[in-house]
Amino acid sequence: MGRIPCCEKDNVKRGQWTPEEDNKLSSYIAQHGTRNWRLIPKNAGLQRCGKSCRLRWTNYLRPDLKHGQFSDTEEQTIVKLHSVVGNRWSLIAAQLPGRTDNDVKNHWNTKLKKKLSGMGIDPVTHKPFSHLMAEIATTLAPPQVAHLAEAALGCFKDEMLHLLTKKRIDFQFQQSGIAPGTLQQPLTLQVIKTKRTIRLRRSN
């Protein structure tokens, strides 16, 4: 069995942080830094796990955090970096002093992604939608289109042949004076016997 994560231990507190806990964590880090998050809860007098302390400090308590709206420059940086690294929010946040990866992720999903779509730009590829449609059309080159059309025509011919064959068999039943629905033998045998009857009548 593997080691039990610290946040799943019975004596670890979960849920909302209190102002007293925030003060304990901030005071300890101000004096000792953030070298070992596994030891910080015990040394700071907290019944929290190291991960919870790290997230609380990183996302809420560290003094260099920036709150409020993102500037135009920050938004441009996010869009530019996203076109290169995608949804790797921690890498993007590292280039935005005072912003957390969670802040960047939320701002992208709630505003920037919609903003790009409204400008006619795909937020995944960062290419104009018109270019994407052109690329799709290019991939379907004339030979491929012809092949698809030929395949579709083949399916249509098979279906028509099936229908015509069925019509012909029904007509042969009618000529023989036998109602198809009244026969109890397998359909293949019925067709064979019907064809034989028609041949005999023609020979006579």
UniProtKB/TrEMBL annotation:
Pfam family, one: Myb_DNA-binding
GO molecular function terms noted in the UniProt entry: DNA binding
BP-aspect Gene Ontology terms: anther wall tapetum development; pollen development
Organism: Camellia sinensis
CDD domains: SANT
Alphabetic keyword roster: Developmental protein, DNA-binding, Nucleus, Repeat, Transcription, Transcription regulation
Domain called HTH myb-type: residue spans: 9-65, 66-116
SUPFAM superfamilies: Homeodomain-like (SSF46689)
Record protein name field: Uncharacterized protein
A GO CC annotation given for this chain: nucleus
Residue span, Myb-like domain: 9-61, 62-112
Location(s) in or outside the cell: Nucleus
Domain of life: Eukaryota
